[in-house]
Amino acid sequence: MRPRPPSMRDKRRYVLAKITPLWLCPETKSVYLVVQEAITSLYGDAMAAGIQMAVVYGDNEFCIIRCKRGCEGQLATALSTVSCLNEQAISLRSYAVSGTIHALKRRIEKCRKGPVPDARELKIGEKIFEAYYFPGQKVDVLEKGFKSRELLFLTETDIEEM
Amino acid sequence: MIATDATVFPSPLGNTSLRRMVIETRELGFDSIVAIGQQGWETDGFSVIGGTLVRETQVKAVINAARANSPGKGLIVVNAGNNSFNRAIIQIKGVHVIRHLHKTEKNSFDHIIARMSAENHVAIDIDLRPLVLSRGVWRQRTIQRYKDIIGLCERFEFPLTLSSNARSVVELKSVREMVNLATLVGLEETGAKEALSTIKGLLIPAGPVQVVG
């Protein structure tokens, strides 16, 4: 089937969303499922069909989500209602909107914080944690283990004071 | 723009330290937060306002909390209850914000309390957490309740505040996200931005005009 000429195609918008926490590294498919569920539960099936959402790019820090032009506001609102992915707390914060993926990828290069740093071992009290040090004094601390792992969001100063 | 997140819960109530909350909320576009269970302080133009949350449903507990709070320093936030409780606490001097009205009965906040709230300059908090976390009927009921409150607000012009009620970095919302979520419950963009800047006015209420000299 031949593709439609540009003048006959639907106009799209691309929303750049920032993923928190950075070390979660979700798959693109799971991001799609969780955003689709958020849109459907907030606006219903008919509206969700109209938004035409698709996840077109994803890495550990950012993802680019496509929607129909004019629906970017609704998509951004639905993104703020995403709270959990595979039983892990997550947030998808809309960061920028553009008409091309290329422009958003340039934006990603500007504000990327780099790859996820290697976890360092940290002992707080009796428990052993994995600490991820990020720029800007931020430290995400995750308990080692398999079940009900404790998660703390601290700063380097907090750790020095412990 | 002055933007304040009206309630956050840093550790030990949540899993994020106060310093981390400050870094994150600053990045999200806020210039102040109300931190429950913390002392107020200021750093590089960002202010942390100490907040006291009263969960008890006895008026006496609210009076004691309002007395213990030094005026102009901390914010007294009270969980709403039934109609008579709300009517009583709205008249207590030193109570700044009433929250969790969506959890109470429908008649707990009527036009009389709305008028009293405007007269006594007590803000009603719109908690955005249930809009994010709940689904289905519960979210529909919350939206319905907030729309009712906002309808009364347009009529009586009592102050509104917006809060993320975040216990973690992940639950924090940016200014734009809060405005988006507020428009979902019937608040206009200008109204939402105004609600984000209400807190500072609550701490230093406008007094009578004084003639100097």
Distance between the termini of chain B: 34 Å
How many helix segments of chain A? Answer: 5
- Going by CATH, the architecture of chain B would be Alpha-Beta Barrel
Q: List low-confidence stretches of chain A.
A: none
Uncertain ranges of chain B:
none
What is the CATH domain class of the largest domain in chain A? Alpha Beta
Count of runs of 4 or more consecutive helical residues of chain B: 9
Itemize the secondary structure elements and their pairings.
The complex is a heterodimer of chains A (162) and B (213).
Chain A: E1 12-20, H1 28-43, H2 45-51, E2 54-58, E3 62-68, H3 72-79, E4 84-85, E5 88-89, E6 91-98, H4 101-111, E7 120-124, E8 127-134, E9 138-143, E10 151-155, H5 156-161
Antiparallel strand pairs in A: 1-3, 1-6, 2-3, 4-5, 7-8, 8-9, 9-10
Chain B: E1 4-8, H1 18-27, E2 32-36, E3 41-43, E4 46-54, H2 59-68, E5 75-79, H3 83-89, E6 97-99, H4 111-120, E7 123-127, H5 129-133, H6 137-156, E8 160-163, H7 175-184, H8 189-196, H9 199-203
Parallel strand pairs in B: 1-2, 2-4, 4-5, 5-6, 6-7, 7-8
Antiparallel strand pairs in B: 3-4
Helix pairs in contact in B: 7-8
Tell me about this structure.
The complex is a heterodimer of chains A (162) and B (213). Chain A has 162 residues and is of the alpha+beta class. Chain A has two domains: 9-111, Alpha-Beta Plaits (2-Layer Sandwich); 120-161, no CATH class. Chain A has five helices and ten strands. Chain A has helices at residues 28-43, 45-51, 72-79, 101-111, 156-161, and strands at residues 12-20, 54-58, 62-68, 84-85, 88-89, 91-98, 120-124, 127-134, 138-143, 151-155. In chain A, the strands form three sheets. Chain A has a four-stranded antiparallel beta sheet, sandwiched between helices. In chain A, a hairpin with a 3-residue loop joins strand 8 (127-134) and strand 9 (138-143). The longest helix of chain A is centred in the first third of the chain and has 16 residues, at 28-43. Chain A is elongated, with a radius of gyration of 19 Å. Chain B has 213 residues and is an alpha/beta fold. Chain B has a single domain, classed as TIM Barrel (Alpha-Beta Barrel), CATH 3.20.20. Helix content of chain B is 40%, strand content 18%. Chain B contains nine helices and eight strands. Chain B has helices at residues 18-27, 59-68, 83-89, 111-120, 129-133, 137-156, 175-184, 189-196, 199-203, and strands at residues 4-8, 32-36, 41-43, 46-54, 75-79, 97-99, 123-127, 160-163. In chain B, strands 1, 2, 3, 4, 5, 6, 7 and 8 form an eight-stranded mixed beta sheet that branches. In chain B, helix 7 (175-184) packs across helix 8. The longest helix of chain B has 20 residues, at 137-156. Chain B is globular. Chain B starts with a strand and ends in a 10-residue tail after the last helix. The relative contact order of chain B is 0.17. The model of chain B has no long low-confidence stretch (mean pLDDT 91). The interface between A and B is medium-sized, with 26 and 28 residues.
